[in-house]
Write a structure and sequence with these properties.
mainly beta; 10-stranded antiparallel beta barrel
Amino acid sequence: MSIYKQVLGDEYYRLHPMLQQRYNIGPDRSFEASGIMHEIKGGPKWLFPLFRLGVYWKLLFPEHGRSIPFTIKNTARIGPDGESQIHWERIFHFGASKRFFNALMSLDEERSVIKDYLGEPPLVYSDLTFHVSDDGSLTIGSLHQRVVLGKVELPLPKFLQGLATVTERYDDKDGVFKINVNVRNPLIGHVFSYEGEFKENA
């Protein structure tokens, strides 16, 4: 069973049918899609050196703009300890440059959260909560975060955290998935965001 079905429980069936299909990822089903990010925004300019460093971890990038081609691929894996994992490969195409925002997710059954390791190799860990709205859309929120230094994980104080809110829905009229991602810091506010749409590859 998909880790997203498990974490949502009965709420999963309140998702729009296309979102149910999209998050039904497992050994026999991956998800690949292409689309456009209508707008990608970065944070304050003094954060750009950090974003440039993030390129090497396939985590952050300094570029921003409008109408940026985008691809996403979600595939199931089995971790070293036998747990089910979902790999997220998100690619933003800035001309000849490809920028990544990758992650590896798994389920913490005891706490009913998704464990999210961001970057390759992982640099940041975050707990994720999943919630289904009355209109069938999905909201994902990040909670406790840690910095990952090899096998050592250290809690990040609140003032250093980049807390994400992701909203994903399916637009029946246009036949596309629509997404909005907003990352904020308690002190500086907006850090990174993008919004756009994509369609599953045939």
